[in-house]
Write a structure and sequence with these properties.
Blueprint lengths: L3 H15 L5 H17 L11 H14 L4 H14 L11 E4 L7 H12 L3 E4 L16 H4 L1 H4 L10 E2 L4 H11 L11 E2 L7 E7 L2 H17 L8 E5 L8 H11 L3 E3 L10 H14 L4 H10 L6 H13 L4 H10 L8 H22 L8 H12 L5 H14 L4 H10 L13 E5 L8 E7 L15 H13 L2 E10 L32 E2 H8 L10
Parallel strand pairs: 1-2, 3-4, 5-10, 5-11, 6-8, 6-9, 7-8, 9-10
Helix pairs in contact: 1-2, 1-3, 4-5, 8-19, 9-10, 11-12, 13-14, 14-15, 15-16, 16-17, 17-18
């Protein structure tokens, strides 16, 4: 199953070449259209929208490399449950627990119906207010219509909010109630909960905004004792670091530790870590076609892009898998002139490393621990860049209870999907609003609550509803303190993001204009809060 790196660096790159597309984005758009057909079940109704030549090229590519895309997994399961009468899961499903039910699309819902029809008793949990994945065709109507879809279902509402202080919850509920179709839950704060601190802060420019946010965080940490990792900064967008880079500079000047999207920095997304992972996968399966091509692309082997394209054409023309083609040419380099010799040399080098690593794993003297095996594999493959990769892999193994390489590979496959990010301890963490779902903090600062960003260009349902719910989710990440900032003018790179790119003028988001919460000049608020300690200003 192709992971994010393989989809981007192998599948999309190759499809751009195969279909002679102008850019990776064009290939991604075509895949997104195909994925949409699976998620909305348009594919079942003969309404395929992608270019059929693109689909044909992708099926050809998949035949050579033997992978499955994660986007198609649920659709394939749905088809099997519906179309194959004798299709069975590994064990009968007596009880089915579905969390985050509001995030399901039509294809997901159809799988749930099929399993229920086979006798599974359902228990689902969800909140229509937190349906924010419209880009994968999820819609809050899925959970809103559950009682009608499953007559006799018992509703067990949770009315007491144990996360947010009173004023934070009330603001969130106000935003959620802007949707007239919302389920009325009657949510209330936990008994005895204080009101909390909520402030809507206006700044003349984004430069002053960034410096004052850093000053606010410094005050929370040094004067009020809030641990840095209990402060969360949320951004709607951060294209090319437009928001996070100015924040990083302001925090550096204020001497406040900051972590920008910590979950996105995996050593396996970098070339050295990716090589180590490819070797581990080949130890488990010498015919892992994507891993072979990963090593051909990342190692110094004199086997470049043109040679790789010729190798692909060789495999396709003969109906071979990538590994079979590599082995044929390695045995007879004359089959792929003038690149066969370089390929044979590289295959011999990789095989030698794999055999050495295998001997380490199978050493009869003692049962090697996973940390020792990983360290030795990494030192064989790329000794100068192994430490971070090994530490990351051991962390994944520890959390999954994996004690051997096969278990580790299963754990790595499981975390290759979107999961809740881990907060970096000892630092103020900066995340996008989508990634913050499931995360909470003592203090949350939502930056750029402006119409140009939220809802931005999404001015009609259902996309407008997604943006409103996204703001609700962001507001309710805060337990005790919530600060919302907006700038009247966004300068530099930020002026080009959102609706009306190029214009510096910004206005408060429509979702907050009618709340009882009134804007306060940000620098003054922070000065007053600090007891008149000076707030940074910008020229």
């Amino acid at each position: 199953m192709a992971d994010d790196w393989e989809e981007r660096n192998i599948v999309l790159e190759d499809m751009k070449v195969i279909r002679q597309l102008a850019s990776i984005d064009d290939a991604r758009d075509l895949f997104n259209a195909l994925s949409s057909d699976w998620e909305t079940l348009a594919a079942d109704q003969g309404k395929l929208t992608p270019d059929p030549r693109f689909v044909g090229g992708w099926l050809e590519h998949r035949g050579v490399f033997g992978y499955t895309l994660r986007a198609e997994l649920v659709y394939q399961l749905k088809r099997a449950l519906k179309q194959l009468p004798d299709f069975q899961l590994e064990t009968p499903t007596r009880h089915l627990l579905v969390d985050e039910y509001q995030d399901l699309n039509k294809c997901d819902l159809e799988v749930i119906r099929s399993l229920s029809g086979r006798g599974a008793e359902l228990f689902v949990a969800g909140d229509d207010d937190q349906s924010i994945y419209g880009f994968r065709k999820a819609h809050p109507e899925g959970i809103r219509n559950f009682p009608q879809e499953y007559p006799g279902a018992v509703d067990l509402p949770l009315r007491e909010c144990k996360r947010c202080d009173g004023d934070i919850l009330r603001l969130g509920e106000f935003v959620a109630d802007l949707d007239p179709r919302r389920i009325n839950k009657g949510t209330r704060p936990e008994t005895g909960r204080p009101s909390g601190e909520v402030a809507l802060l206006s700044f003349p420019t984004n430069r002053i905004e960034a410096k004052c946010i850093a000053a606010l965080c410094r005050d929370l940490i040094q004067e009020e004792g809030v641990p840095p990792h209990e402060i969360l900064i949320l951004l709607r967008v951060d294209t090319r670091g437009a928001f996070s880079k100015p924040l990083s500079e302001a925090f550096r000047c204020a001497q406040v530790p900051i972590a920008i999207d910590p979950a996105s920095r995996s050593p396996l997304d970098l070339a050295p870590g990716r090589q180590v992972l490819a070797f581990i996968r080949l130890l488990a399966n010498r015919e892992d076609h994507l891993s072979w091509l990963t090593l051909l692309r990342l190692r110094r082997n004199h086997f470049g892009g043109k040679a790789q394209r010729e190798l692909y054409e060789y495999a396709h023309a003969r109906g071979l898998t990538m590994t079979a083609a590599i082995r044929q040419i390695a045995n007879d380099p004359s089959l792929l002139p003038p690149y066969g010799g370089a390929l044979a040399t590289e295959v011999s080098a990789v095989d030698s490393l794999l055999n050495t690593a295998q001997q380490t794993i199978e050493a009869p003297s003692q049962e090697p621990s996973l940390d020792r095996v990983l360290a030795e594999i990494a030192s064989l493959v790329l000794p100068q860049a192994s430490e971070d990769t090994v530490a990351y892999l051991l962390d994944v193994a520890a959390k999954a209870g994996a004690t051997a390489l096969p278990d580790l590979l299963v754990a790595l496959q499981a975390i290759s999907v979107d999961i809740e990010p881990e907060i970096e301890q000892g630092k103020v963490n900066v995340l996008t609003m989508h990634k913050a779902k499931g995360v909470t903090a003592t203090a949350v600062i939502v930056v750029g609550v402006e119409d140009e960003h939220i809802p931005g260009r999404q001015d009609h349902e259902p996309e407008l509803g997604d943006e409103r719910r996204l703001l609700f989710v962001s507001l309710t990440r805060a337990r005790q303190m919530l600060f919302l900032t907006y700038s009247q003018n966004r300068l530099g790179q930020q002026r080009w993001l959102g609706k009306n790119p190029g214009s510096p003028k910004r206005s408060l988001t429509q979702f907050l204009r009618h709340t009882p919460l009134k804007p306060i000049p940000g620098p003054k608020y922070i000065r007053d809060r600090q007891g008149h300690r000076p707030c940074p200003t910008a020229r």
